[in-house]
Each structure stands twice: as C-alpha cells, then as structure tokens.
Amino acid sequence: MKTPLIALLALVATPAAAHVVAAPDTARAGAYAAIAFRVGHACATGDATLKVRIEIPDGVASARPQVKPGWTYTLERGPDPKAAPTAITFEGRLPDEAFDDFAVLMKLPVAGERLVFPVVQTCEKGESQWTEVADPARPDEKLSRPAPVVTLIPAPISADAAPAAHHH
Questions:
Q1: Total domain count for the chain?
Q2: Which residues are paired to 94 by β-bridges?
Q3: N or C terminus: which one in the chain shows less Cβ crowding within 10 Å?
Q4: Positive or negative torsion for Cα 43, 48, 50, 54
Q5: Distance between CA atoms of 135 and 102, rounded to whole angstroms?
C-alpha cells in the first residue's frame, strides 16, 4: 500500500517544482539584495528552456544580472537610458532534466509590502507565463502560473531618521 501513496505524493509535488520562484522570497526594504529566480521545468517533456525574461517592478532603483556561463542577457529600459532596467532576458539552453538560478542584484524600494516579478519562460516549443498575481481578497486561491514574489521586510528606524528633539 505504500507505493500508491508515494506515487500520489510525487504527482502532487511535481507541479510545485516547475514553478519559477524567488530565492530568497523575503528581503529588507531599501537594501541591496541578490535574488535568484529559480527555474524548474514547465516545458514539454524533452523540451529545453531557451529564454527567461524577468520583469523588474516599479520602485526598484537598480537591477544588475549575474553573468552566467553559456548564457547571454539583455536589459530593457524605459525612455531614460540611465534608469533601472524594466526587464532582463537571459538566453541560453536549460535542458529538460535540469533547473537553474538566474540571479539579479537589486536596490529595493524603501516602502511597500511585496514586489511581483512576472517571468516568461520560452521553451523550444511554446512558453510558460509565470505572471498570475494572487487576489488579496482570496489569499487561499491556488494559481496555476504564479509570478515570483519577494516580501519586503520593513527597514528598522534608525536614530538618525528620528526627528531631532529641541531643548529650550
């Protein structure tokens, strides 16, 4: 009887492994953080991943991709060429049986609760769009293609930031 249970657990665990997730999924607001976007596999069996496009949310002051041997990257920017990228696309080849991390060093915003990073994974045949965002009114809703999320931890209030006391 153990075999069916193990098979069932394997089936339940498989879809979660395919999601693109942010690691770590928490970071201090206003700090620099290296976040890796971990790509499992969501392509068809035997189909390699060829591109991973990560959208950078508003409020991120800078975003620098980590160089990956065998992969190239391109930065998309808005009208201001000196502004932080709006998206980073890595191109290379990730075989079906493997996973990889695509790291980005970012200067995070000082305010906010969470950052959502929509990701599009392009495969040899098709693509997977990891772009679904949970509805705050339905926190238990299960998403089939959730976007990676980083929860911001409020920065501690320093003595320098506190208003100065005036003595008369």
A1: 1
A2: 49
A3: C
A4: positive
A5: 27
Range of the domain at 69: 18-132+147-153
Q: Tally Cβ neighbours within 10 Å of residue 65.
A: 19
pLDDT of 77: 94
Decide: pTM greater than 0.90: no
Contact 65, 73 (CB under 8 A): yes
**Residue 51 belongs to domain with CATH number:** 2.60.40.2230
* pLDDT in the model for residue 17: 47
What is the token pair recorded at 68?
A: 């990956």
Length of the chain measured in residues: 168
DSSP state of 113: S
- What is the phi/psi pair of residue 9, to 5°? -60, -40
Q: Is 131 in contact with 116 (CB distance < 8 Å)?
A: no
Rg (CA), the chain: 19
Percent of the chain predicted with pLDDT > 70: 83
pLDDT over 50 (residue 72): yes
Question: Residue 140 — pLDDT band, cuts 50, 70, 90?
Answer: confident
The tens digit of pLDDT for each residue in 38-61 reads 998 878 888 999 999 999 999 999
What distance lies between CA 43 and its chain's CA centroid?
A: 18
Q: In what order do the strands lie in the sheet with 149-153?
A: 26-28, 149-153, 114-116
